């Protein structure tokens, strides 16, 4: 059994800021084919589906679909606020290489 992805408190806190004052929507983290390295992350606000894995924290939810789940086993979903920009980032132990854009990887 692979470990499910983890979501940091910082990522949940940023999601709470995004959802503040409006409808609270989960953050979907998905993996799709494409990108510079073969796979790419698709991170967006989305409604949960019945077969999603739901990760909860701080009153917020992150959802992962069953197809993406094996690619995200043991990954850490975080929020990075650096000079180059603020974004959700994924530290993925399954990725053998990634490219500079930070959204594409290979296995």
Automatic annotation (TrEMBL):
PROSITE patterns named among the record's database cross-references: HESB (PS01152)
GO molecular function annotations of the record: 2 iron, 2 sulfur cluster binding; 4 iron, 4 sulfur cluster binding; iron ion binding
BP-aspect Gene Ontology terms: iron-sulfur cluster assembly
Transmembrane residue ranges: none
InterPro entries the record matches: ATAP (IPR016092), ATAP_core_dom (IPR000361), FeS_cluster_insertion_CS (IPR017870), HesB-like_dom_sf (IPR035903)
Domain Core: 6-102
Superkingdom, natural source: Bacteria
PANTHER family documented for this protein: IRON-SULFUR CLUSTER ASSEMBLY 2 HOMOLOG, MITOCHONDRIAL
Protein name in UniProt: Iron-sulfur cluster assembly accessory protein
Natural source organism: Paracoccus amoyensis
